[in-house]
Amino acid sequence: MPVSQPVSSTKRADAERNRGKILTVARAAFAEPEADVSMAEISRRAGVGMATLYRNFPGRRELLEALFVAEVDAICTAAAEGGEQMPDTRLLCWLRQLFAFFASKRHIASELLKHSDGTEPVFGGGRARVIAAGKPLLAAAQQAGEIRDDLTIEQVLDLIHAVATIQVDASGVEPILQTVLDGLRVVSIAN
Amino acid sequence: MPVSQPVSSTKRADAERNRGKILTVARAAFAEPEADVSMAEISRRAGVGMATLYRNFPGRRELLEALFVAEVDAICTAAAEGGEQMPDTRLLCWLRQLFAFFASKRHIASELLKHSDGTEPVFGGGRARVIAAGKPLLAAAQQAGEIRDDLTIEQVLDLIHAVATIQVDASGVEPILQTVLDGLRVVSIAN
Lengths: 191, 191
Description:
The structure is a homodimer. By secondary structure, chain A is an all-alpha fold. The first copy, chain A, is built from 8 helices and 1 strand, in the order ααααααααβ. The termini of chain A are far apart. The interface between A and B is medium-sized, with 34 and 34 residues. Strand 1 of chain A pairs antiparallel with strand 1 of chain B.
């Protein structure tokens, strides 16, 4: 059906754009403290009708899951970038992104927990993908002798995740995060 | 009443001993995974009658609070010891004790939460006392130039507490804790 193709691809592009707008708006909305933004409010802010919103995401849970998956995608993409950097810089920069991801996803994850039993594959799958993405970064930095080799990628993720659960403001958590990243380096003690 | 004094002091010693036995038994009982030990079981294990148990601790909550306070006492006492050690060694050893305290008190604290609303002074008071005990240790190690000076004692406690929440076995958490303690040191990066 070659004549219908342009129309169909325009429709697809429109649908993509709408979906992207909804996700962008929802990400910002759920990042607000004590976020309890309704689907109607998300539809209003994204400038799309309720029918379009529900065609894309049949419910709040599907929207939250899509946001979560998009965040995991971004973290995995980031792990594949920065190949021109030194292995330790590359790992530590990625861990900073991961920290921001953990800190921001707290809202999404806790919202999502209200709408599922927490054992859904969307959670477990996220962790497995992040581990697979981070593993070669850690291995390269350890092989270069720059990062301590007594930790696995799982332990590093657990550590960064734990720091992200600390309930202080951003300026308070920065030196804590820096302490942890410094602790990952192979160092000679000054004293 | 000088004649009644020896009897009274023997009674007091007995009462002290019973209280001590109950606390020791209860500490071990609540440290068991999925601990849900009854008051009757604690009375049995401690070898004291139910009347004695309830005279000391009118309920499960009072027993848990007494355990919590005893743990905080031990941490504060530990902070005052080891004055002959180097300031950084003294701080880092104390933080290891604090880590063990956080890791073990999780059971007590979570049990206690079931029996109170979590805003009781026993919690807040514990934190304030631990902060007061650790503050001079951190200050001494920072002044000696051995420990990074961009962290407050509150931030250090938050960090150690966060590591204690990581759900891995003891052998898995050890290198994570060591990473964090290494990160606290003033170092020269090897690379």
